Amino acid sequence: xxxxxxxxxxxxxxxxxxxxxxxxxxxxxxxxxxxxxxxxxxxxxxxxxxxxxxxxxxxxxxxxxxxxxxxxxxxxxxxxxxxxxxxxxxxxxxxxxxxxxxxxxxxxxxxxxxxxxxxxxxxxxxxxxxxxxxxxxxxxxxxxxxxxxxxxxxxxxxxxxxxxxxxxxxxxxxxxxxxxxxxxxxxxxxxxxxxxxxxxxxxxxxxxxxxxxxxxxxxxxxxxxxxxxxxxxxxxxxxxxxxxxxxx
Length: 248
Hints:
By secondary structure, the protein is mostly helical.
């Protein structure tokens, strides 16, 4: 499942969300030349990525922050920035620019510490903004559980877009991260599932004050878990290309 947009328009300009996207892409492009040399790229990741064993031994604490702005490839950075764009603008509108930035950083740091807890002796560098973005997804789920999200489903040769409620898409994503984390060895390379799981739960927890201020369960009852305004409608207009009938 790959979300491509939500039906939840933002009422404010998400300057912080846009800034984070630009910053992540700019940092990725800054070390793009290293991609041609596996040795150089590995050295770079070991210097600026979070290596749990180094943190456990009492050094490299700065990498908890720097690792949040590094990505391992184009698909990695594109996927993360797409998720941030879809779900970040609405939370920024609720939290304010400064509040959202602090929320994002707290989720990213919390996600890194969760991974460190489950893999304290791992020597594999951890990079990526997905822990922080998982927190954004958790906060979004708490406030807008029934906001519609257009999801592209790909099954080998089958492609279809479905409009799903956020609780279905984000809930399934979380369950997949949790199940994968339980079934995987966090000390080896691959996806840092526990960072995703931890970031998501931290995002939910940090959004609770906003949810309570809005009336907690009454907020869900009043809005049916949907955004407090009509959802965006996306329609494909009629094509101006004339039809050519098949000759018999």
